[in-house]
Amino acid sequence: MGSKSVPLTSLVKTSGCAAKIGPGVLHSVLGKLPKFSDPRLLVGFDTSDDACVYQISDQLVAIQTVDFFPPMVDDPYAFGQIAAANALSDIYAMGAEPATALNLICFPSCLDIEVLHQILEGGYAKVKEAEAVIAGGHTISDPTPKYGLAVTGFTHPDHVRTNAGAIAGDVLILTKPIGVGILNTAAKAGLLSDGEQKQIIDIMSTLNKYAKRCADGLTVHACTDVTGFSLTGHAIEMAQASGKSIQIDTGAVPILSQALDYAAIGIIPEGMYNNLDYLQDKFTLGTALPQNLQDVLLDPQTSGGLLLAMPKADADLFLKRMEDHNSWSRIIGEVTDKKEKPLIYF
């Protein structure tokens, strides 16, 4: 077999955002680190937000993030697109537009150099779509391929969106379906059809640029993106950071039906179990939900959608605007005053 034909996913144990360190381990480490204090640091990692916000002037803040991971698909160009879209997403979640990006690449010597070119080409295509520029980067030789970006964006301080401002009465919108982590696991086992594979690549490579821009000019009290911590984890972070609780109607959540089917036969990424271990005491199930549905709600997403807390009137206008971009966006729940648990499913 020629080196170019080596399937990328055969070189990794875990893929995409499912490869992230478990939230319990990560929080235990971060909790022991000293906290930086700087009046210009408007948002750090205290509320588990998507990126840092650093004030440059009264009229300008810089928003910075970094994200990279191993491949979840075998096509190098598609992998580059997905990894770039995922890294750019944090900037959109914070209410900004990306400006500059730096490549982060780990590449094994067993692969043809053309594979590296295709990964970078996919990343470049998404950065161009984002109307940003790639201005360099860093590469190392590594047996496990990985790719992503360090991204900087800019906005006015009044336009920053965080996960900490949700208020009681807001409705909650999700802009992409969940279940991608389970389907990536099924793909690695060779279980997905070409059509299923194309569908999840299209979802993961869709920029959150369009959702961010559809929310511009509307009241958005809180925003985050749904990635490796799952819908459950990111909703809990928003509730805790806001000092509120969130109720989610499981029947309203956009879910890839194939993910429910594969979850029912035990096709589950390791990241789901990490999420469950850390989150199981932080949410309640208002009704008895099938096990496969519970698994999908904890499924680690790669390049997932935005989760926005908005007044109902603004949410309706947002959904109308989003009709030109995707058919996935919908209202899935609401924000309430603080209850016994941060998150309630019903």
Automatic annotation (TrEMBL):
Its cofactor is Mg(2+). The keyword Nucleotide-binding applies. The record marks K20 as: Important for catalytic activity. Binds 1 Mg(2+) ion per monomer. GO terms for molecular function: ATP binding; magnesium ion binding; selenide, water dikinase activity. ATP binds at K20, T47, S48, D49, D67, D90, G137, H138, T139. The keyword Transmembrane does not apply. Residues 168-340 form the PurM-like C-terminal domain. Mg(2+) binds at D50, D90, D225. SUPFAM superfamilies: PurM C-terminal domain-like, PurM N-terminal domain-like. The active site is at C17. GO terms for cellular component: cytoplasm. It comes from the Bacteria. Keywords: ATP-binding, Kinase, Magnesium, Metal-binding, Nucleotide-binding, Selenium, Transferase. Residues 49-154 form the PurM-like N-terminal domain. Its EC number is 2.7.9.3. Pfam families: AIRS, AIRS_C. InterPro entries: PurM-like_C_dom, PurM-like_C_sf, PurM-like_N, PurM-like_N_sf, SelD_I, SPS/SelD. Synthesizes selenophosphate from selenide and ATP. Homodimer. Belongs to the selenophosphate synthase 1 family. Class I subfamily. This is Selenide, water dikinase.
